[in-house]
Amino acid sequence: MTYDRLVCANCAAPVTEGRCPVCRANRERLQQEGPFGGLNPVALLTLLIVLLGALAVLAARTA
Fold it and tell me: Transmembrane region positions (predicted)?
């Protein structure tokens, strides 16, 4: 989920507007996440399985 859809529990405003200190802190935290920070665990696990499968195919091809 992207932070533009999140609603702050402190002020009930969208987090992207940054109306209160809680909104601003969470907006900063979400913007600082790495390139895989927005992916859910299932997507990361799927990506890992695909990469391992590709490595297995390459290893079988060279053997």
Answer: 42-60
Which residues have a Cβ under 8 Å from the Cβ of 43 and sit 6 or more positions away? none
Instruction: Report the distance separating Cα 63 and Cα 44, nearest Å.
Output: 29
23 contacts: CB under 8 Å, gap ≥ 6: 8, 10, 11, 13, 15, 17
The pTM for the full model equals 0.46
| Cα–Cα distance, 3 to 43 (Å, whole number) | 18
**What pLDDT, on the 0 to 100 scale, is given for residue 2?**
59
